[in-house]
Design goal:
There is one protein chain. By secondary structure, the protein is α/β, with parallel strands linked by helices. It folds into two domains: 1-88 and 164-250, Rossmann fold (3-Layer(aba) Sandwich), CATH 3.40.50; 94-163, no CATH class. The chain has helices spanning 48-56, 78-87, 104-115, 119-132, 148-159, 178-194, 230-237; strands at residues 6-17, 20-32, 37-41, 63-68, 71-72, 89-92, 166-170, 198-202, 214-219, 222-223. A hairpin with a 2-residue loop joins strand 9 and strand 10 (222-223).
């Protein structure tokens, strides 16, 4: 699925903590083009994750508009937002969030099981994606048998499983060493180019400067103008990060279309059941 444009218009988000108002976002306006790799940087508490949650449909703005692919996310009902997260958005988390009893391939297949894909199509899509992230030979390993970088690669493959048009990553290198972090950022850039997916990353990691197509800085809940980008200026003062040699992802076969199926009901918890394992 091709990438979608993302537009945030004059968005604010206010929380109440202990009877006091806390403004996480103050009048943020931002546009991300289809297939762009955007990095959001800023100090802790600057509003990066809050903005990502609004784009993901995990939260609603206090005021303002959030539009993804022409659809107003801020106006969606709960059911519509659930469908939006299933079909449009792929998520990558700092802590990988892999199911420990499932293999790498089974973790990648899980969103496809929920979406109703048949077994053969699920297996083929997982194989393609694990090849894309360089883990074709680790498909049957469980998370505890993989390094941190390998687990994050599996998480990226899982996020791409249902062919999302928007990939959101919150501190995807927060638990990785610098060399592995560069590999993950380059992989995200390659995904944006080869799959055409729009990628938005929140990060404190200055290594992202080598790979993102654009960087925006949040400061006290606002987008900082160039003269006030203190985090970016500090990064520049420290010098450019080392460049990582190019990684060449394996080509991905044409995307498989999911079979027509009814949307699973919200109460149907059986869809989370892991696949049965053969007795040895």
């Amino acid at each position: 699925m091709p990438g979608v444009p993302v537009e945030v218009r004059d968005v604010t988000r206010r929380f109440l903590r202990g009877g006091e108002e806390v403004w996480a976002l103050r009048g943020v306006s931002l546009r991300v083009e289809p297939g762009e790799f955007l990095a959001l940087i800023g100090r802790s508490g600057s509003g990066k994750t809050t903005l990502l949650n609004l784009i993901a449909g995990l939260d609603r703005p206090t005021s303002g508009e959030v539009e993804v692919g022409g659809a107003r996310v801020d106006r969606m009902s709960e059911r519509e937002r659930t469908r939006y997260r299933r079909r449009v958005v792929g998520f990558v988390f700092q802590s990988f969030a892999l199911l420990p009893l499932l293999s790498a391939s089974e973790n990648v297949e899980l969103p496809l099981r929920i979406a109703g894909w048949p077994a053969r199509a699920r297996s083929e899509r997982a194989r393609q994606l694990l090849a894309l992230v360089g883990l074709a030979k680790r498909a049957h390993h469980r998370p505890y048998e993989l390094s941190g970088g390998e687990q994050q690669r599996v998480a990226i493959a899982r996020a791409l499983a249902v062919q999302p048009s928007l990939l959101l990553a919150d501190e995807p290198t927060g638990e990785l060493d610098s060399v592995t972090a560069m590999e993950i950022f380059q992989l995200l850039r390659d995904v944006a180019r080869s799959e055409g997916v729009t990628v938005i990353v929140c990060t404190h990691d200055r290594l992202v400067a080598e790979y993102a197509g654009r960087i925006e800085e949040l400061r006290d809940g606002r987008l900082a103008p160039p003269a006030e980008r203190d985090v970016w200026q500090r990064w520049q003062a420290r010098g450019a990060p080392p460049r990582m040699p190019g990684l060449r992802p394996a080509p991905v076969a044409p995307a498989l279309e999911p079979p027509p199926s009814s949307e699973p009901s919200e109460e149907d918890i059986s869809r989370w059941a892991p696949p049965e394992r053969r007795q040895r």
